[in-house]
Design a protein that fits this description.
Oligomer: single chain
Structural class: alpha/beta
């Protein structure tokens, strides 16, 4: 068995099987020795192939291409014949690799096991980051998580070993930071079972969040379908400086586009202002692009990316990217479907919230706005880190603010937590003194994991229902997301602004103009934050947390106990009956915003992500019922009594009654979690009828054999009553582009017919007929 440097091994994982051993510094190599019998089988990112495909498509379309188009069309299954029409046609693609976080990997791997395939066809990895609850601090929280989640971690580790999937153990870090450090690079196409997978766009990659069933397709080597994205161009001019950070770019863009303005589009940043942003800063911007509904976001290859690749032991990739640099930037004269222009010289620090990530305020204004709206001004907790903002630069800038306070004898007035993005970041900021500074100012360093950002936070300083304010450097701030308290007003901003507000203790503090009082009574102003883009020394990789799959895992066993309450093998969903769907009950008519957090809550429910029946007990418990404005209180039309949404759905299922959900705009925004589609299917749902869908959720519903349908006239939403019966007509002639209809029977005996639209293509209609995409895959194997 040969011994290789971990960095070299990871680089070869990125470049592909057979890549030659590469040089990295002796200091880095000495700290990162690991033994491997062979490297993960990967598909070499062949820039020649990418260039060839792009040339074919460019000649066919006879026009310049955006960067997004180059990378996406460069991965087409059939570049010669694929119909390409932005916003209309479906593309058949071959992504280079798959990444899964542990909460979604459970269901993805259970589905892959059900497929009957012996091994994944593309390089794939599992990342343990979602199941670690923040309580007291990193080491204790990690140890507790390993004990509580032992069954799930063993399942993921053994399934990874058997089917050829790399396994990043708990404590290794957040999936998106690990991808940036190891697997993303210019021109790669990666899909991940997490909505913030677009983080990799900061390294010039097309990284797209998907559900687990999509991941199974790619791992099976089947062409993956994506509706041809539109392209929104964001032209950046000027230079970032002072308190303004990369986070402010996306906070401003979110305010412009709103939570659904990017739906069906890739956001492509370009212009002279790009060069003033670090590689990890670009990743921050791409990461939070998920909050505007974008398919993904991407930046063009430049010297900041080259430097990051070199610093993370991938200089050979940057040399190759330099050679193909024209391929990794947009063509001159390319056209965007929409253009937004931002002058970074004029951009001010922003803070967005509460309750939605697109409610944008300049930091200078938020205090007055909060006072006017009755939002609590006192900052109870400041939280920095998360997959969006946990880079070395982020931690350095936050530490520079904290040190100024310490030098004046001050500590944070608010509680303060720090979440490193990866073991490499944790080890490096500890070595370089940042952790000591952040701890001295009052910070508690949490585990290298998602933690409070996804609701994995055992918060005890306020009671549920107590109105309070927290400020975070996270990406998402939906109601009750971070701490399960619907009265918590969560605001998202940059790590340096979070640190300043935690020190001041109030939302009304503007670090650009306001003064603090030192311990000796003198007034002082904080200087703008500073921080190195990358460490002067090499990164310290910390502990080795990666498990490489064996060359042949066929003899290995993956055991799932029938008595387990954490894991459950999947049973195939029933096929379409061949008839129209008659007399469906309205389970719930949802009022207002309904994210995947509302449909399938995270937090304490994460422990059931591998057990479909148990996780289904959280279905739609956060959604508002239009009938009574109540949460998790709907009428059972068989009994006349009110009950919880999952309870009523189970009662309907037990009595052979199928049902629909009626929803509002942008239904299913937020996380990529496919449980929000699996649960309705499992409990007897047949269709979800709404004004509009978020992209990932709509696809997830199709994958599981449900009908995601939209009102042709959005005002028809108002015509649906809670006690209606709906029949969905036209399924016998179900075809792409052909509307269906709903015959609505009201309890007063009246009827009306509503037109329903859909976005199914022929392949997706086959999923519906088979009962699910997985069922269809099995049919095609025989």
């Amino acid at each position: 068995m040969a011994t290789y440097c971990l960095t070299v091994a990871r680089l070869q994982l990125a470049l592909g099987h057979g890549a030659r051993r590469l040089h990295v510094s002796a200091a880095y190599r000495a700290k990162a020795q690991v033994s491997m019998s062979r490297f993960e089988p990967t598909s070499f990112i062949n820039y020649e192939k990418l260039q060839s495909n792009v040339d074919i498509v460019r000649k066919r379309l006879n026009r310049p291409l955006t960067l997004s188009e180059k990378i996406v069309y460069g991965h087409l299954d059939d570049p010669h014949n694929q119909e390409i029409d932005r916003g209309r046609t479906y593309l058949r693609l071959h992504p280079d690799r798959v990444a899964m976080q542990d909460a979604t990997a459970q269901m993805a791997m259970l589905q892959f096991i059900s497929s009957g395939l012996p091994r994944v066809a593309v390089p794939s990895t599992i990342h343990c980051d979602h199941l670690i609850e923040a309580q007291t601090g990193g080491p204790k929280d990690l140890a507790r998580a390993k004990e509580i989640n032992e069954e799930v971690y063993n399942f993921l580790s053994s399934a990874g070993a058997k089917y050829g999937v790399g396994f990043w153990k708990p404590g290794s870090g957040i999936i998106h930071q690990i991808i940036l450090e190891n697997y993303a690079y210019p021109g790669v196409m990666l899909i991940g079972t997490d909505s913030h997978t677009p983080n990799g766009g900061g390294l010039g990659a097309i990284c797209i969040g998907v559900g687990g069933a999509d991941a199974v397709d790619v791992m099976a080597g089947i062409p993956w379908e994506l509706k041809c994205p539109k392209v929104i161009g964001v032209k950046l001019t000027g230079t970032l400086s002072g308190w303004t950070s990369p986070k402010d770019v996306i906070l401003k863009v979110a305010g412009i586009l709103t939570v659904k303005g990017g739906t069906g589009a890739i956001v492509e940043y370009h212009g002279p202002g790009v060069d003033s942003i670090s590689c990890t800063g670009m990743a921050t911007i791409c990461n939070m692009g998920a909050e505007i509904g974008a398919t993904t976001s991407v930046f063009p290859y430049n010297h900041r990316m080259r430097t990051y690749l070199e610093k993370t032991g991938r200089g050979q990739i940057s040399a190759l990217a330099d050679k193909y640099s024209d391929l990794l930037v947009p063509d001159e004269g390319c056209e965007y479907d929409q253009i937004i222009e931002l002058n970074l010289d004029e951009l001010k620090p922003h803070i967005n919230g509460p309750f939605t990530p697109d409610l944008a305020h300049p930091v200078s204004d938020v205090g007055a706005v909060a006072e006017k709206n009755g939002w609590p001004l006192e900052v109870k907790v400041g939280l920095i880190g998360s997959c969006t903002n946990s880079s070395y630069e982020d931690m350095g800038r936050a530490a520079s603010v904290a040190k100024q306070a310490l030098d004046k004898g001050l500590k944070c007035k608010a509680q303060f937590t720090v979440t490193p993005g990866s073991e490499q970041i944790r080890a490096t900021i500890e070595r370089d003194g940042y952790s000591k500074i952040l701890g001295a100012v009052g910070g508690v360093v949490l585990a290298n994991a998602c933690g409070p950002c996804i609701g994995q936070w055992d918060r005890r300083d306020v009671k549920k229902g107590d109105k309070n304010t927290i400020v975070t450097s996270f990406n998402r701030n939906f109601t009750a997301r971070n701490d399960a308290n619907p009265a918590t007003h969560a605001f998202v901003t940059s790590p340096e602004i979070v640190t300043a507000l935690a020190i001041a203790g109030t939302l009304s503090f503007n670090p650009e103009t306001d003064y603090l009082t030192a311990s000796n009574g003198e007034k002082f102003k904080l200087e703008p934050p500073t921080g190195d883009e990358l460490p002067a020394k090499d990164f310290d990789p910390g502990q080795d947390t990666y498990q490489h799959p064996p060359a042949d895992g066929q003899v290995l066993k993956v055991n799932v106990s029938p008595e387990s309450n954490r894991l459950q093998l999947l049973e195939p969903f029933d096929k379409w009956s061949g008839s129209d769907l008659e007399d469906l009950n309205v389970l719930i008519k949802v009022k207002g915003k309904c994210t995947t957090d509302h449909i399938s809550a995270a937090g304490p429910w994460l422990k059931f992500r591998g057990h479909l029946d148990n996780i289904s007990n959280n279905m739609l418990i956060g959604a508002v019922n239009s009938e009574n404005d109540a949460i998790n209180k709907i009428k059972n039309h068989l009994t006349g009594e009110y009950g919880g949404v999952p309870d009523v759905a189970r009662h309907y299922k037990a009595n052979g009654v199928h049902w629909v959900v009626v929803g509002d705009d942008n239904y299913g925004e937020g996380s990529s979690r496919e449980h929000a589609a699996l649960e309705p299917r499992h409990l007897g749902g047949r269709a979800i009828i709404v004004k509009s869908f978020a992209r990932i959720h709509e696809t997830n519903l199709k994958k599981q054999g449900l009908l995601p349908l939209t009102f042709s006239n959005p005002s028809d939403y108002d015509k649906i009553r809670p006690d209606d019966k709906l029949s969905i007509k036209g399924l016998k002639t179900f075809a792409p582009g052909k509307p269906l209809s709903a015959v609505v029977k009201h309890s007063d005996g009246s009827e009306e017919t509503l037109e329903l639209l859909h976005s199914f293509n022929e392949t997706q209609i086959e999923w519906f007929k088979a009962g699910s995409a997985l069922n269809r895959m099995k049919e095609l194997q025989h």
